[in-house]
Specification:
2-hydroxy-3-oxopropionate reductase activity; about 55% helix; oxidoreductase; alpha/beta; about 10% strand; 6-stranded parallel beta sheet; Tartro_sem_red
């Protein structure tokens, strides 16, 4: 390796990545493509093999992954998993070095993010909550929307990393603010998918050319990123996740609870939260959230 290559890598922070799922794997790979040294840990060996094949380094534990990292990034399913990897003798806070920056990109409760930032501060570790929107496709294409909570100085330091992962990157306020905005995002997405699903069943029962109808709808005021991203799911009944109903169920719980805490009414959101929950109890929790179409079909007397 040339001295120039050495110096370019030396100027970039060493990154530890914890959680290599549907989102975490392509996101970590985009950082490798951008020239970052990424050491990763996750529970599945095949995901670690994927990371090493992409040019990253696999670690045998959280402690090993974070020990020499300047920046630790986490991307796990929910608050309990964030707490499990952050706290305790084998967790991030006990093993990352003082002065490190912890960026949690999971979608969790705002309070969990606030508590994590407070606990990390005692260890000299700075924290940003930075949940994302855009799904698997957005992760792969590095066009995610990233909503961030935390200190301006920490955001400024992390911004080049965020820019390798997403297209819209915004500091939304203090710790927990990113999670609050993500909760609002998930509310809008769920209601939007539900509206699209109802329109699809209505159009099909009316005998309209569905593909043509969705194309023209998406060109007008009814158009949306949701419809653009999920149109083929509806047309092909392809419900491979994507973003699982199980996770959207978790997120609707977050937004419902957070809204209750601040005194905001979510009448439509509450109905859609129940529809997401019912889809899950019918065994569809592992499907993409566009499978809300299946719930509408059941209600409309269609065989699913």
């Amino acid at each position: 390796m040339s001295n120039l290559a050495d110096s370019s890598h030396a100027s970039r922070p060493a990154i530890a990545w914890i959680g290599l799922g549907i989102m975490g794997s392509p996101m970590s790979e985009n950082l490798i493509k951008a020239g970052y040294d990424v050491t990763g840990f996750t529970l599945e060996q095949d995901k670690l093999d994927r990371l090493t094949a992409a040019g990253g380094t696999a670690a045998g534990s959280i402690a090993e992954a974070v020990r020499d990292a300047d920046v630790v990034i986490t991307m796990v399913p929910a608050s309990p998993q964030v707490e499990a990897i952050a706290y305790g003798p084998d967790g991030i806070l006990e093993n990352a070095r003082s002065g490190a920056l912890l960026i949690d990109m999971s979608s969790i409760t705002p309070q969990t993010s606030v508590d994590l930032a407070e606990a990390a501060k005692a260890k000299g570790i700075r924290v940003l909550d930075a949940p994302v929107s855009g799904g698997e496709a957005g992760a792969v294409e590095a066009v995610l929307s990233i909503m961030v909570g935390g200190e301006q100085a920490d955001f400024d330091q992390a911004e080049p990393i965020f820019e390798a992962l997403g297209k819209t990157v915004v500091l939304c306020g203090p710790h927990g603010s990113g999670q609050t905005v993500k909760a609002a995002n998930q509310l809008i997405v769920a209601v939007n998918i539900q509206a699209c699903a109802e329109a699809v069943v209505f159009l099909e029962k009316s005998g309209v050319d569905l593909a043509a109808a969705l194309d023209v709808l998406n060109g007008g005021l009814a158009g949306s990123t949701v419809l653009t991203r999920k149109k083929d799911n509806f047309l092909n009944r392809d419900f491979k996740p994507g973003f699982r109903i199980d996770l959207h169920h978790k997120d609707m719980g977050i937004v419902t609870d957070a809204a209750r805490n601040v005194g905001a009414a979510l009448p439509v959101g509450a109905v859609v939260a129940q529809l997401v929950a019912s889809l899950r109890t019918q065994g569809d929790g592992g499907l993409d959230h566009s499978a809300l179409l299946r719930a509408v079909e059941r209600l409309s007397g269609e065989r699913v």
